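Per reviewer request, we include the raw input and output of the structure prediction for the construct analysed in the revised manuscript.
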Amino acid sequence: MTRIVSVSVPATSANLGPGYDALGLALEIRDFVTAQFTEDNKVTVEVIGQGAGKLPSDETHLIAKTIIDACKAFGTEVTGLHVECKNAIPQGRGLGSSAAAIVAGLVLASELTYARASEDELLQMANAIEGHPDNVAACLLGAMTIAWLEDDGKANSVSMNVHPDISPVLGIPQTELDTHKARGLIPESIPHVDAAFNAGRSALLVAAMIGDPDFLIEATEDKLHQPFRTQAYPESMDLIAQLREAEIAACISGAGPTIIALCTSDQVAQASEIIAKSGFTAALVAVADQGAIADNNDVKSETD
């Protein structure tokens, strides 16, 4: 018997303005990944869609590497592996493509080895690989998540449903941005008054996202990371300014350069028009109430 396991993982938008490294939102743009052990002592990866022809096709592919390392942690040495990816999440755009790959690899390893790791175990492993829990938590759990680290580095997260009148609209540019470069632009310290500002806005954003969208404009203000990254994506920041002038709550998605407009239903058309006129691709997306979704099938191999 050849066991084939599959998982779908959503895109994510982290930070949402003030919630740097803490807040995440799962979006219904999904990568679908299938994996199986093979007997040919080879590791192969096929990619269709986003990243096709650019991403590695061997054990250096992030999903394959994650599967191999996680299987070893679960007590299984991988000798042969075949992975198939149907990718819809844009690469290098601030929509959590690397987090999705990590979560997909961990879930597939858990299924392939019958480890059946818990959500908490998967979160700890994902955070250790990614280095911060905001995207991986949202990808794993779905909906809107708040993630935090304990003093010993243990990751925690809670998931909550988003107000039904909030409709995210993305502005996706053609350009990519390396996450490490974007994070490197943020200073090591900021004034106390700015930290207090962001603390208040982050708390307000949670209230706005789950209870009262009327506060979204104020709630998405940020002084912690976006101002320092402007040089990395000036066009994105110009677009955000245009949207906010129209009273539409817009901010950078993750490390950028994609922007996310947290619209109420009556703002969707206007936001899409402003985004399209700026040369970005406008995409209305639903909040993904479910995070990673695993499936598995036991099928006979061709030699049986």
